[in-house]
Amino acid sequence: MSASSYHSHCGTWQERLEDACREAQIMPPVFQIVSDRRGGRTAWSSRVTIQGRTLAARFWYDGKNLNNAKEDAAELALNYLAGSNPSSPANSRGSW
Q1: Contact predicate 96/36, CB 8 Å
Q2: Letter string b/e over residues 6-41, b meaning 16 or more CB atoms within 10 A of that residue's CB
Q3: Considering the entire predicted model, what is its pTM?
Q4: Angle CA(87)–CA(88)–CA(91) in degrees, nearest 5?
Q5: Where would I find the beta strands (DSSP E) of the chain?
Q6: Which of 46, 54, 60, 89 is placed for a possible disulfide with 73 were both Cys, Cβ 3.0 to 4.6 Å?
Q7: What is the DSSP letter of 27?
Q8: How distant, in Å, are the alpha carbons of 2, 51, 78 from that of 35?
Q9: What does the alpha-carbon distance between residue 54 and residue 46 come to, in Å, rounded to a whole number?
Q10: CA distances (Å), 67 to each of 36, 50, 51, 62, 74, in order?
């Protein structure tokens, strides 16, 4: 197994996305945290922009799990870069 393929299976989705952008010689990903007031609580999610395209995380999280939101968005972005279809039923819905 080459070092490159071994490395692609290690680390967080965010780290893997950073590595993929570096290898593709494109600008690094830019993450944005977003919130949505829901009753007495706030739900948090993330978006990531790569190659001029912004991809939203599939799920909303409690504030203590903001990193999970970034991981969710990073996974979608990595799949987008790999040529997979990042759209899913959850992505085509508007926010709640």
Answers
A1: yes
A2: eeeeeeebbebbbbbbeeeeeeebebeeeeeeeeee
A3: 0.76
A4: 80
A5: 30-38, 41-50, 53-56
A6: 46
A7: P
A8: 40, 24, 23
A9: 10
A10: 16, 18, 22, 10, 10
3-state secondary structure of 6: helix
Q: Does residue 5 register a pLDDT over 70?
A: no
Residues of the chain with pLDDT > 70: what percent?
77
pLDDT, tens digit (0-9, with 9 covering 90-100), for 53-96: 999 999 999 999 999 999 999 999 999 999 854 444 344 334 44
| Domains located in the chain, CATH noted | 3-87 (3.30.160.20)
Q: Which residue shows structure tokens 């007495």?
A: 40
Cα–Cα distance measured from residue 2 to residue 65, given in angstroms and rounded to the nearest whole number: 34
